[in-house]
Amino acid sequence: MEKAVEMIQIVKQFPGVLANDHVDLIVLKGEIHSVVGENGAGKTTLMNQLYGLLKPDSGEIRIFEQKVSFKGPRDAIAKGIGMVHQHFMLVNNLTVAENVVLGSETTRGIIFDLREAQKRVDQLSRSYGLQVDPTAKIEDLPVGMQQRVEIIKTLYRGAEILILDEPTAVLTPQETEELFSVLKRLKENGKTIIFISHKLNEVMEISDRITVMRQGKVTGVLNKNETDVREIARLMVGREVVFTVQKPPAKSSDVVLRVENLWVKDYRKLDMVKGISFEIRKGEIYGIAGVAGNGQSELVEALTGLRKPEKGRVILCGEDVTGKSVRELREKGMAHIPEDRHKYGLILQYPAYYNMILGRHYVQPFVKGDFLDHRKIQEFTKTIFSQFDVRPNNIKMLGMNFSGGNQQKLVVAREMSAQPKLLVVSQPTRGLDVGATEFIHKALIQLRDTGVAILLVSMELDEIMSLSDRLAVMYSGQIMGEVDPKEVTVEEIGLMMAGHRFEDLRRV
Amino acid sequence: MNNRLWAFLVPIISVIMALLISSVVILLIGQDPIVAYAALFKGAFGSKLAIASVIIKTTPLILTGLAVGFGFRAGLFNIGAEGQMVMGAMIATAFAINVAWMPAVLAIPLTMVVGMAAGAGYAAIAGVLKAKTGAHEVVTTIMLNWIAEYLSSYVVTVPMGVGFGTPKSPEIANSAKLPPLMTVQATELTSGIIVAVIAAVVIYIVLEKTTKGYELKGTGFNPYAAEYGGIKISQNIVLAMAISGALSGLAGTLEVMGVHHRFLGTLSGGKGFDGISIALIGQNNPIGIIFAALLMGSLRTGSNEMQFVGVPKHIILIVQAIIIFLVAADRIVRTILIRKKRVKAS
């Protein structure tokens, strides 16, 4: 079979890291080839070299058996390579057609020919079954559709080889399914697809062949039919990975958090949480599942002091803490792992040891009077770093220079080491690879076993069903039902996420 | 290369490059850049008098630079240093005129405190507006600048004005005058420079060593994360503006106490705005700001001498503009340095 891409003995050195260490990648024409690896394994670096964004230090790239040397993405595009980035590069207030042709506009003389653009986008969309309306504005389209616009953009520029960088990270399960059928259709039409991911189930579903990377090296090239998730995970992480969380049953006793008829508005002054009540006991993980945007964020913000509730009461350890400030709540034993670690969890411009005291920067043992005790802070951070295995083990490195998984470890380590009574956790493993996810799951269970009450909000069904002792599903600001995750099916949870009450489901 | 070294290298390289680029301009107007720069240097450091006047020019620039730089570190763009400087100087003068009965040990520190409080209070208006209503400090401080300017020209002509010519207040009490470090010919070298350097050291300690500094910088970098960490954003905005204003107020007060000994309508003379450039060149680092202010002070002093050898003194405005441009666009400098290293390596 013809080889679409050959990357031979690619070496790319960055200051301090060997990002690609004699990497070989061979992609056959007309296949879907996955490149998997943990964050920092060198996948993106490799792809950036294929797309002309970076130049390899040594090694050879061949496209359709012809040696190439790209000076920039323009050269790569000319050779038929297209890339769909994780963050879309679209102009929000332009239409689909305008976005697609941007940079190589259809013209009649010197006048932009919008109608021709729309026609050609429509043709492309139809021939690959993409079902995108060329006249729709980008800002009106859901994320899944925007991604298709990106795909059309590459096709419009004549891409034969499509690189998709973590395309499912932003999609709902349904959108992912639709993306996969699009990819299959592209493959039937002879396109070659390189799929970058660390979600192993998806990789197994969509790929023909898989290249696994770890720490800048290729650790295996596998045929989908001759392997399984376990083997890929082992090659990725370098050891056996435990997939199911093992946890002893919760030893629930005293109520730590009681929420009574809580109402919360969002920044647009719309009711997002509509009269929610629940209790979390000591040593219990209480999960809240639901599709994003059904009031989970506002609930978390209200419980952690970032937003004032409109109505209702919040009682923490027997004390009414409704509407108290973040500082007061933290002093009473609340800790919070926020959903957006870059926006809320870290001050990226601060070194790790400064980040490690955020929220407790004014209390013993980190201060001497009004002065920070740098020595104590650094000692504390060093012990936390070894305890939570944060890498690299450099407490003076700025927050922004850690990988995503290690940034999350910084946040998790800080909040857990505050010895909280209640830990509010939101999307703890979003965007993390297998190893880091496993680590954080174990840490949460361990914390639970020491008697901490944990509120876990997550969009990942697998995660929330395996971690929670009790589980509530939120829809449109209300709880659709509170269940024992061991006694419900995924379908039932799915129906609750779509707005059906649990009582109604079981009544039939 | 680490960040600290960069922060140090970029301004120095920028100055050298600015002088090189400006020499082309000097060549274009048919003059010899070497002669011009020699005169510039001689004008700034060639005599005791020159050095004294460099130091006099540098003193308020350190403080306005600190004011703006401190604001930047807390995420605030205080364009109001000019107005805060005027308010500080004016109210300190009103106080200092009436303290003849006090001994100097009391009158000097008290006058400074009054000037700082005036600057702080004036800047805090913008802080409160931002904290309560979200009004952007750039807009409000510019508005406050105009209010300060017109208010001061009224005060200095009508209620406080004396004599003819330039509007001016009466002289302040002798006990509130700063003792000169030394007197060169008729020029008194003010001891204000010591106060300014102490202020820079204090601001450095506050920013780098204290809990408050941690909160202020944190708020400046990422207000969301700061709020998440239990830091009261609105309190810190007002506090940061007040401290920034206090530094500007002190700049004006020292001009009154050490140089003019009275309040003049033209006292600030754009030094508040110079603070923005100085903070930029000093990379918002208090110690860097001392050197940036010194650079500006010496360029301005030396430029007169340059004029004598036939090179218009406005050339230094070009130098200054190029320095600011290069520091602000520090990537240009970094790229040039990295290229050089690469060429050497290969």
End-to-end separation of chain B: 18 Å
Helix content of chain A: 25-40%
Mean pLDDT of chain B: 90
Radius of gyration of chain A from CA coordinates: 25 Å
Q: Give a count of the beta strands of chain B, DSSP E runs of length 2 or more.
A: 2
Counting helices, strands and paired strands, the structural category of chain A is alpha/beta
- Return residue spans of chain A where pLDDT drops below 50 for at least 5 consecutive residues: none
Structural commentary:
The complex is a heterodimer of chains A (508) and B (346). Helices cover 33% and strands 27% of the residues of chain A. By secondary structure, chain A is of the alpha/beta class. Chain A is globular, with a radius of gyration of 25 Å. Chain A starts with a strand and ends with a helix. Chain B is globular. In chain B, strands 1-2 form a two-stranded antiparallel sheet. Chain B has 14 helices and two strands. Chain B is 75% helix and 3% strand. With 346 residues, chain B is mostly helical. At the A-B interface, α10, α11 and β20 of A face α8 and α9 of B.
Give a brief rundown of this model.
Helices cover 33% and strands 27% of the residues of chain A. With 508 residues, chain A is α/β, with parallel strands linked by helices. Chain B has a domain at 62-270.
Write the layout of secondary structure elements.
The complex is a heterodimer of chains A (508) and B (346).
Chain A (H helix, E strand, L loop, with lengths): L2 E12 L2 E12 L3 E5 L6 H8 L7 E6 L2 E3 L4 H6 L2 E4 L11 H6 L5 E2 L2 E2 L1 H14 L15 H14 L4 E5 L7 H16 L3 E6 L2 H7 L2 E6 L2 E7 L5 H9 L17 E11 L5 E11 L3 E5 L6 H9 L6 E6 L2 E2 L5 H6 L2 E4 L3 H5 L6 H4 L11 E2 L2 E2 L1 H15 L15 H13 L5 E5 L7 H16 L3 E5 L3 H7 L2 E6 L2 E6 L6 H8 L4 H6 L1
Parallel strand pairs in A: 3-10, 3-11, 6-9, 9-10, 15-22, 15-23, 18-21, 21-22
Antiparallel strand pairs in A: 1-2, 1-4, 4-5, 7-8, 11-12, 13-14, 13-16, 16-17, 19-20, 23-24
Helix pairs in contact in A: 14-15
Chain B lengths: L2 H26 L4 H13 L2 H26 L7 H16 L7 H30 L3 H21 L22 E5 L2 E4 L1 H18 L1 H11 L1 H6 L4 H28 L10 H11 L4 H23 L6 H14 L1 H16 L1
Antiparallel strand pairs in B: 1-2
Helix pairs in contact in B: 1-13, 2-3, 2-12, 3-7, 3-10, 3-11, 3-12, 4-5, 4-6, 4-10, 4-11, 5-6, 5-10, 7-8, 7-12, 11-12, 13-14
